[in-house]
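A note from the maintainers: we've had questions about how concatenated examples are separated. There is no special marker in the raw files; a new sequence line simply starts the next protein. For clarity in this README we add a label.
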Amino acid sequence: MPTGATRRPIIGRHPLATSLLAVLALWLGSTPGASADSRTPVPGPPAVSSAPRSEPVSLREIPVPPTAPSSAPGSCTSPTGCVSAVAAGGFLPDSRTVTATFTYAGAPAGSPYAGSQLVLVRTDGRLFPDGTPWKCVTCGVPAANREGVTGLYRYAQPFRDGRRVLAEAGVVDCSPYPLTDPRCTPAVTHVYPVRWNVTPDGSGPGGSVVGLKLHPDNVHVGWNKIIRPSAPGDSFDEIAYFGRLRFDAHPTTGTPLAPRYDLVKVTGLYSADPALNGHFFGVDPRRPTKLRYEQRAAVGEFKNFTGDGGSLLGIGNTRSVNLDHFATSLTTGASRRLNDDPGYSDPATSSPDGRWTVSMDVRYRDRFLFMAGLPGVPPLVDMLPTGAAASAGYNIRTRRLFQPYLIGPHRDQQLNSCTTGPCSTLATGPGSEADSPFWAARADSSWSPDGTRIVYGQTYSGPADCGPPFDLAPCPPSSEPGGRTSRLMLAHLTSRGPLHLPPVRPVSDAVPWGTPYRPGDPDPKRPHLPAGHYTLDGRRGGHASVDLVENAAGTALTRISVTYTRYSDDGRTFLDGTESAENAGTASSPVTFHTRLRVSGEHTGTRTTSEPGGYTVSPLSSLQGSYQPVGTMTTVLDGRVYAQPVSYS
């Protein structure tokens, strides 16, 4: 059973945000070859004080309609439809009703219960007028009420007015009625597409919008844009943006010429300053051969906003090849690290008061320690796109390995450890438990407005992606009703009283440290530090000698070499040795590491690569759902060996 104990972090005091790119790694993962399905606590320095106790959590599965017997029309006889998949959304203002995405299947031809739909689900025992705890909001919405809408109803985020929901497909609006009101019927429901104008005259199609998230002020949103290579030498990248939602009932340009929401007053969350583009390192203007560190603008891949609306959530490097979450002020750009574990952390959502997050994490398995486990290594080589090199840890082909972690003041705990309160699911067979490693949490979780409940979704592993050699035990078929391989889970933080917070006031459209976007602007090229020889002084002694090499055009770094001499940021752990990373200058190029590092002091250990070839991994193969590195990388820490995950294709 996965442990629910509090964290024992390896603390690194030299945070670095890398803007690249968890998205490159969406399909990779496996378990360590030396210890499949390991749940050994992460090694780290002794706790400063006694570990805080985990808080009580009551966990249960949320009921959903019957599972569709098949996709054949008529195979489902339920009057309110059958489902083949479910995904979690967010809470309505009552903190007891959640939105969800149901994929309906098997209904008779012509039934409204078909395909991806937005649904409300009661979690407190109340029923809708038809006698069920669920209500399909978009089933049967007339085509005239959803003109120009494409995409699914995933990532359904309710507005606080209780009448609207922001989803991937657009804004679902039942005004003037609350979504739960019996008068909110398909005939009065509208779905409005969300469009980003990216052409000067407004006539072209909308721009790419990925991961659209609603700001707590219910006026602004954040999103990412994927920049794909279009020519040899182009780089794969992901850029974050912030803008305002504006409803246009009668648009005269662009498509569709139907009521829609436009994204306006847009700011790119990037800067011409290399130190404000996820790397934290800049050249000291008074000493041009010295690097300086400033923890700002740790956006990387935009994830969400803090509950108080003052900051955005992103991912970045706190140490070499170690992605953690940061909260970055929309006003100042100052970033603060939210979690500090060497395991990979990705989707995150904030509590309404901004003091806690729920993060999807893989720290319960030692999958990243072969690269990120050595303490005290500043993330200098991460100025190259090294994110793909660590991506072996959180997927196995299409299987996600995330579990939800509650992260807050002085405590991290696995939300579904099933050690601090009741824990139940609708399944009955082996491998069905709420804490089963075969059931993986998916993006995104969501907090109730009163701060006492969290909803998240899970999916079950396919037989090709679980069991040996990836897990110690074989995985049985899902025993959810009808063999369903997705489910909705509700965590109740039983010791917490409800929050009573005022509505978040609208924030400024301006992000002072960002770059204003104007329709027609080209995709930005991330700046980098100039080629040359530099020195980075440790905060508590020693130094790092750094050599940066650019490509012939001077458009990107291609090689970073570092020599450490008694380098220390904490005065307890000291780093010596050499490391380098190199590629062809694009985010889609294979990255090769050569590493000979050694730590001494409070911890002893090494990180090494096989030589003479080093360790090479390709982000292109990760997009295809494989992990086929050339060479090896191994970390030994305090006598324990951490090997890289087993390869697969």
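[label: protein 2]
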Amino acid sequence: MNDPRAELRLALQRNPGDAIAWIVLAEHELDAGDAAAGASAAQRALTLRPGHPEALARLGRAQWMLGRREDAVASLREAARNAPDHPGIAVWLGHALEDAGEAEAASQAYARAHALAPDEPQLAAYLLAWRRKLCDWRDLDSLSRQVRDAVAAGRAAVEPFAFLSEDADAAEQLRCARLRAAEIARAVRPLPAAAARADDGAPVRAGFLSNGFGAHPTGLLTVALFEALKSQPGLELHLFALNGDDGGPVRQRLRAAAHALHDVSQRPHAQVAAAIRGAGIEVLFDLRGWGGGGVPEALALRPAPVQVNWLAYPGTSGAPWIDYVLADRYALPDGMAPHYSEAVAWLPRCFQPSDTARAIPPPPSRAACGLPDTGTVFACFNNSYKLNPRSMGRALAVLREVPDSVLWLLSGPGEADARLRAFAQAQGVAPQRLVFMPKQPHADYLARLQQADLFLDTEPYNAHTTASDALWAGCPVLTHPGATFAARVAGSLNHHLGLTSMNVDDDAAFIARAIALGSDRAALTALRAELAQRRSDSGLFDMAGFALDFAAAVATMAQRHRRQLPPAPFELAAR
């Protein structure tokens, strides 16, 4: 596969006044992850054709990739003014407005794009995902049906991460992921295969690729595990950070735990892959998957001989360049495995680690949290896109039956909070019974969690890191495990904690259990005492034990490769 950029550069040497060729070059540079080169090519086009909307759009995309949010918005707004009927430009303006914090304006941009091309499912998917974040549930069912039908028909490579919020089963999620992976696979040529190492007991170089190595859920979940893995013989840890150094304590701990922390932020995809290959990584864990900020294009280049989907993306990658998914049998039971493109590696414990070195500061007063002095505090600190009509309706049904109770939520973007209060009022619940917490530094957030009596989970996308945080802070989590990985993570945490009574069978049982606990202070106190005990003795928060199991899983994957055997499912025995 020839690199079109090389051919375009040669053509532009012969004819540097070709503005359209500069625009096309900018597009290819951006697709390769080289934002600086893309910006340079777009600017060359603009010197030849000032105000050209396609050139402005590429410049805006480049500025967005470089983190220059205000510049990106300005460029894309100018592009949209110059080409008001261009749906693609409207979409990119929406992306830039999202990151600039202009949430409602982003929604308008996505709605404009969809109005210009209403039959295009990719545009419907962008509008649907952002409306979910804003708790703007207009046309939710029709937009969701349009997207799901397009995936079923193979007509749209929509973002798999956003698709996790739809009421789709594991087979649909696999189809969605495969469509997106195929789109990337067509555009890259993998590196030559790395030679298999001799099966001589040499240490395994394990790599971890993430944009969350810092004050981010991924960093918070993994740091204590990496610290425990440092003492494991036969394993050498390399972290590849797609995010720059935030200077915080988590980043410092991660650096100290690893053999090396490689900063690959803002690098083109090929350079990210080259850094991984150059470090001699044998088993590479993708800690981003289809979530935003990842680089599936770099992974598609096959920089490591064994590549693993773990932790950050709760579903199948659908990607031919990912060999294994690391899971547990509750989150990913046997019946779901046929809908995974990867071989499943089952741990004998919950797949999700946690930072057990975190101290929990004393809680602030209820008044300081904006909570009433008395009454049960139900909480749900999941991101706003998980708060769909079903989950909110379920929580409001509980409030109606537990006098003086409140629902404590994480404040959402734009007018999300106001929309949720209006929804509550329409459901017969006084809007002031919804209390919103602005995002807090992690320690302050953990301190506030201690004022929550019971966490009410969402579906089909559960609490994941948030559920772990709640349990660590002593707040029980009530969940209805569903039929996909994303819908079973909170259930897996409860299962491995030994609190299976908090995993209920349906919405009616969910509502009944929440009402019973919210109305019986003694029962709630006893449950919290049981949680405190099981937190200490269940093994869920045992990172030394997790490190042993994790190292064994890595060794199994590496050994199969060294023996030139293909990836295959395996399950580790409990210790």
